[in-house]
Design goal:
By secondary structure, this protein is mostly helical. Helices cover 80% and strands 0% of the residues. Keywords: Membrane, Transmembrane, Transmembrane helix.
């Protein structure tokens, strides 16, 4: 049996029918695939234009044409690239060619993401990303304000330590006045030392208490500024204009936080604790006799020891406040919508997915078409041309052969007519000549 006349097996017939069916589907899909690809490219170009416009500071005609030119270039590039891939990659039969074009597809996809997708994401979620930046900045400022306020309040708490030290020396002064301390009643040398330290501690206590209203006022002012900044974050209108007002409020809030840091009295208490025993001015002993003066000297020594202990206690308390980590310096840095989308990409995954999908969706079509073409080739492999002809193909071939035969017959007749001599041609002309 000849190759042309052999019968197809069941598997070959099934594969051939599948291949023909897939070819019919592809032929129908090819009618609108270029139009669909063009729509996707134009849509990506529009969003790219919006993203580019948000990056250009100038709003003049040159910026407009620059944004249009870039978006048109992106649309053309996307359309041409995916048109190449849709035609070439599915047609590759060798493994090397298929792998090479697949790598080219991935590289081209990365290029499309770099030149278009991030700008699409900026157009889709740029304003929301800038608002996210404003919200995070408000959160940072709030943390800095609260930490500065906490440090300032911790410094105010040192006032209680100073008050206890002052009350202790006042009690000792009262005991000395009544004679219960050195054994001699009155306001002698010991009493004057105790009074001196009491006055120093009282002045320090008053300085600490004077900071209380300043701290409360600064904290209230800071909270008011934070309220206005939060309102600007969610207010209607263009985010660029709100960012300008937000920046002005952030400068005011930074000044308030700096003031709160200066209102901390911990450094003042630390210095006073060091000066407390060092600044004692010892008076001349005024006892009536040597015994009384000896008692006064001994009592003054005990007072100095008590001063050292109180000084060390105040110093430790002040060091604990000074050891609190100060707030990090916070400053609002304006940011473009494109940069905001990149910085807060994790918060806008749906927008990024949509921006990338509109550019890379044809890539799915490329691999779908490649798989389909592979299935078609698999169904036709091993079959001769005669075995794959359909009735429609046979009719078309017969009609074509008839057209060829008719054309060849007409051509032969024309050649024969031109080849015959004119005098041998039959007709009345030769009779007339005779």
């Amino acid at each position: 049996m000849s190759e042309a006349s052999r019968r197809l097996t069941a598997g070959e017939a099934k594969g051939l029918r599948t291949a023909r069916e897939l070819e019919g589907h592809i032929a129908w899909l090819d009618t609108f695939t270029p139009a669909a690809l063009g729509v996707l490219a134009v849509a990506s170009g529009i969003y790219t234009y919006l993203g580019v416009s948000s990056l250009l500071e100038d709003t003049g005609a040159m910026s407009f044409f620059a944004a249009v030119a870039y978006s048109v270039a992106v649309s053309v590039g996307i359309f041409v690239f995916w048109s190449y891939m849709l035609r070439l990659l599915p047609a590759m039969r060798s493994a090397a060619g298929f792998i090479g074009l697949t790598i080219s597809t991935f590289v081209g996809s990365l290029a499309i993401v770099a030149m278009s997708s991030w700008l699409n994401a900026a157009a889709l979620a740029g304003s929301a990303a800038v608002e996210q930046h404003l919200e995070n900045t408000v959160r940072d400022y709030q943390a800095a304000l609260e930490q500065s306020h906490e440090i300032a309040l911790s410094g105010l708490a040192l006032g209680r330590e100073v008050q206890r030290a002052r009350e202790a020396f006042e009690a000792l002064a009262d005991q000395e006045r009544s004679g219960d301390l050195s054994g001699t009643a009155g306001e002698g040398a010991v009493f004057r030392v105790l009074t001196q330290k009491t006055e120093e501690l009282r002045n320090l206590e008053e300085q600490i208490a004077a900071e209380q209203p300043l701290i409360d006022q600064a904290f209230a002012e800071g909270n008011a500024i934070l309220g206005r900044m939060r309102a600007l974050t969610v207010a209607p209108g263009p985010v660029e204009q709100r960012s300008v007002a937000f920046s002005e409020e952030s400068v005011r809030l930074a000044g308030v936080i700096a003031s709160l840091n200066q209102y901390s009295v911990a450094p003042l208490v630390a210095r006073a604790a060091e000066d407390l025993p060092a600044s004692v001015v010892l008076p001349e002993l005024d006892g009536r006799n040597a015994t009384v003066r000896q008692a006064q000297s001994s009592t003054i020594g005990s007072v100095l020891d008590a001063l050292d202990q109180r000084s060390a206690s105040l110093r430790r308390a002040a060091d604990e406040v000074l050891a609190i980590e100060p707030p990090q310096e916070t400053a609002y840095n304006p940011i473009s919508s494109a940069d905001a989308v990149i910085r807060y990409a994790g918060n806008f995954v749906p927008s990024w997915a949509g921006a990338i999908a509109i550019d890379l969706l044809p890539g799915i079509l490329v691999f779908v078409l490649a798989i389909t073409q592979s299935a078609i080739r698999s169904g036709r492999d091993g079959l001769s041309i005669e075995e794959t002809l359909t009735l429609a193909d046979l009719k078309a071939a017969i009609n074509a052969m008839r057209d060829v035969e008719a054309s060849m017959g007409a051509a032969d007749a024309e050649i024969l007519r031109r080849a015959l001599p004119e005098q041998d041609a039959p007709g009345p002309r030769r009779d007339a000549a005779e």
